[in-house]
Amino acid sequence: MSDVAGRLPSDGAAMVLDGCGIVLACTPAVKELLGVGAGELIGRTFADLLAEPGEVLLPPGGPATLRHRGNRAVKVRLDVLPLNGGSEAQCLVLAVPVATAADRDRDEALVRALFGQTEIGLVLHDADLRIVRTNRPSDVVGLLACTEVGPVVPALDDVLVAADAEAVAVRLRQVAETGKPMTDQVVRARRREAPDQERFVSLSALRLEDREGRCTGVAVVFSDITERQQTERGLALISGAEKLLLGSLDIVRTAEGLAGVLVPEYADLVAVDLAEAALVGEEPGDFSLGAPLRRVAVATRDGAWPAELLPAGASPRVRDPEKELVYGRSALAVPDLSELRIALADDAEGRRQALPHAAASLLMLPLRARGLLLGAAVLWRCGDRPHFDQDDVELGSQIGSRAAISLDNARRYAREHRTAEALQRSLLPQAVVRVSAADTAGSYVPAGTTTGIGGTWFDVIPLSSCRVAFVVGDVTGHGVEAAAAMGRLRTAVQTLSDMDLSPEELLTRLDDLVVRLSAAEAASPGSNRGQGTVLGSTCMYAVYDPIAGVFAIASAGHPPPVLSVPGRPGAGFAAVRPGPPLGAGGLPFEPAELTMEPGALLAFCTGKLLAHGEDGTEKRLRQLRELVDAAVQEDRTPAETGSTVLRHLLPEAPDHDVALLMARLHVLPADATATWELPADPEAVGRAREMVTAQLNAWQLPDLAFTTELIASELVTNSIRYAGGPVGLRLIRDQVLICEVSDPSQTQPRLRRARLTDEGGRGLFLIAQLSQRWGSRYTHHGKTIWTEQALPAD
Description:
Low-confidence stretches: 138-151, 756-760
Mean pLDDT: 82
């Protein structure tokens, strides 16, 4: 009776009857069902338990109503089983409440339905995960079932490929051990008899237990989702290729992104080869011309690129386009590489391009966009992975076409980047400039993207009388347009500097020019505001006089330079108040004059250098001051200092182009100049000639005495005649001989051609013939006319 009790529902009871219907034995559950203990029930007739005594119990039983001790009717279903053992016991009666019996019937109906249908796979495993029952044979399912479950109980690896069987077994073992159900897990389940056919199933599993909670097996419900999975995978791969359009515009990074999309979902090995011309932004030529290629990206499933294949950075070359397999013009699948291995047996170079040892199949995807063949992506599958077929050709063609558009966008972006950078660099001066007034070193760092290139510039402009001008500016916008706008401003500054204007006056005239240029830009029908405009540009202009040691500076919206003086601790900012950006209007530009000492170091930079990165402007300003101060204390050259500053403040490519100008100031020796002040008296002209001759003899320049006497005599005479006095005369010995004459008049001299009948008007023409350069500039007290003569070669 104990075995029978274990098989009954918890609220059912079993009784053994003899031929007269007397209860010989019963299960303890009768107490719960009828309220009568087993001891009381034995010996009574079964008819006494019926609520309706007239009911007759016949096999196989049926619905009946029993009496509960509390005179309550209990509806049950009776199952009567004959016992043919030759003993006193004649039948076994199983009494189960009607509700429980109905539930059991439904459960049995569900099990019959599951095992009878063929749309949903059902497999029962024992505790050792061997298959004990399935609802359909393997030739129909082809996945987790066997043809028949006979005396030999099959295991998973008898049905599936070993790797897939192990992956499924791990999941089922976890369900059996933890009791936690598994739902809708997608697993690969290739059949052993067809390992090259890709198969996927959606798997759900739960643990089977006996009444004591011990695991008796695992029930698995699955459905074949191979087609759906392949479709979703194809869409994911195509989507991944399309997302390359939203990624980096660097062509190499785009190629690396393509390799990452294809591995490991689609292939085990991938190499992306691009034409060298495409890498530099040019349009690649026909591969039939043998255009050089470069393997720009590789990817592998296990991370180790095969040593027998060309690595990243190698340069494969198309040798025979008519017979070339790898770099064709349409997608091509080679499901079996056996014939290709035979064909390339004596071609080591060909094998290095296309035949890894572990590869079983190959797929070539041409990367063609806008009529240009940029290169190819070569894919390999290894091991027992399904070989590439025609479906892969169609899917690969879609992936390749989308990736090619991204690569071509990156190529065209690279061309624009190179054009903008080349234009920007062509408009900048040479990096290192050495004049008597200063040693300078300029640095230009282009932005990492075209959107940041353009508009930043620096300049070092030699002026008259050994003076030098320093310029740093930044044009709003980016790209080629900004570089062109920068070129216009730089040219304007150079032109205005030739007039020897003071810094604030030069910026005022430049501001007026910017207003007119911006008005012309706005009126232009094809103008593109924001791609490069002079309006809102910033500029700093400074003039240094190495004789007086005076540094004059003014700023239009530009940060002041960092100044460090030898012997003084701590670098600081030059005391200048920046005015509004060019074209913004508002307050005038305020000048500042500073007295400089020999060896002072100035660092002019654009605001983008200080705003770059996440450190904050204040922290970067502090770093810049510290670096400049250390350079002065260690007596580094401007070039070394500039490299150190950029190395610390720009560890990676900036988002915007950056300019940095370092300048170490000098003063001319006292014996390199001679200055006199003459009264407005015609007799002073003769004295001027005598002083000039004496000074040139002292400088051992007697060969220049005659021409310099004529120049000084003519200029002093004109000043006395037309401007009055006092008249200043100064000689400067530098890389050239400079003669200056200053007077209180602000009327500029004008060179003209004198007629044959004119008695005068030939003085400036004579000076122009005798000197190498000459000019005039305004001063605070009048004007200065200057000339330059080349020193003798020895």
